[in-house]
Amino acid sequence: MSELIDANRANWDDRVAIHVASSFYDVEGWLAGPRPLRDREVEALGDVSGLDLVHLQCHFGLDTLAFAHAGARVTGLDFSGEAIRQATELAARAGLAERARFVQADVLRAAEALSPETYDIVFVSLGALCWLPSVETWADQVAALLRPGGRLYLHDVHPLAWALADDDVRIEHSYFQEAEPYADDGDVTYTDGDGRLEHTRSYEWNHSIGEIVTSVLDRGLRLERLTEHDWTVWPRFPWLVQTAKGRWEQEAGRPRIPLTFTLLAVKLD
Ligand SMILES: C[S@@+](CC[C@H](N)C(=O)[O-])C[C@H]1O[C@@H](n2cnc3c(N)ncnc32)[C@H](O)[C@@H]1O
Q: Residue 64: which of 92, 37, 25 has the closest Cα?
């Protein structure tokens, strides 16, 4: 398994510089005026000032720093050394270094890497679970990282959207978690720009909605909300149309399918 995770890490290290330079992430724009939390995040989590938040698979930390900007004390965790290096630099450039720290570790060992810290909020967003061979081991980490009464916010790509082929409404991958990953060899990433990946091979695993929900419930969390969305934040399929900045939906006339989902859960006392 570790060779697969190492391949994914090299692939993600390659993506960081491309993403930092992209207009998709618009780092310079962010630094000129850090964006507030998204409406959906405020609606789900309320006022986060003074809370301790850990962002798992934080990439190079823009979403993490948005929470620091909103007053939380934040920890971002990612296995990519390049991502952690960029995140740490961005925190300093944004004047948020006192409230933000970034840690390099495999998310499936996050509790050990961050021990003895625990958190009010575990935040996970878009493009996270597909890189992990076991949603159960991931849920172990979430449960260990949350304080009693702490909340999990997970907004991720819907497993149906991962199961479909990239260019057709055809099931190409298992909807369920399998021991065998599916491999990808693409040399481009999801942002704009001409950058090409040197380490093209990556491995992904799908996890069904039932597997995700059950893994969280089995570890002593109570489900507060599970919402399936008919939109996503990038053109996952060629027939999606952009309806606002960072929002892509099925074109008119096509049956709606779930593209992302949000799960909110609270750790019981
Ligand atoms: C699609 S990105 C998340 C993007 C984030 N939602 C954002 O918009 O910035 C996925 C992240 O997961 C990280 N990742 C993948 N596998 C991981 C693992 N096993 N442990 C820790 N981080 C991992 C990658 O390095 C990458 O930063």
A: 37
Report how far ligand 1's centroid is from the alpha carbon of 63 (Å): 12
Nearest alpha carbon, ligand 1 atom 1: 127
Please state the domain count of the chain.
1
Give the CATH number of the domain where residue 111 resides: 3.40.50.150
Enclosing domain of residue 209: 2-267
Protein residue with its CA nearest to atom 7 in ligand 1: 59
Ligand 1 centre distance from Cα of residue 97 (Å): 21
Q: What tens-digit pLDDT sequence spans the chain (269 residues)?
A: 799 999 999 999 999 999 998 988 989 999 998 789 999 999 999 999 999 999 999 999 999 999 999 999 999 999 999 999 999 999 999 999 999 999 999 999 999 999 999 999 999 999 999 999 999 999 999 999 999 999 999 999 999 999 999 988 899 999 999 999 999 998 888 887 777 888 889 999 999 999 999 999 999 999 999 999 999 999 999 999 999 988 999 999 999 999 999 999 999 97
Neighbours of 148 (CB within 10 A): 10
Alpha carbons within 13 A on the beta-carbon side of 140: 11
Q: What is the Å distance from ligand 1's center to 254 Cα? A: 31
Yes or no: say if 55 and 77 are a contact pair by the CB < 8 Å rule. Answer: yes
Burial of residue 105 (number of CB atoms within 10 Å: 0-12, 13-18, 19+): middle
- List residues bridging with 73 in a β-sheet: 52
Pairing of strands 231-232, 247-250: antiparallel
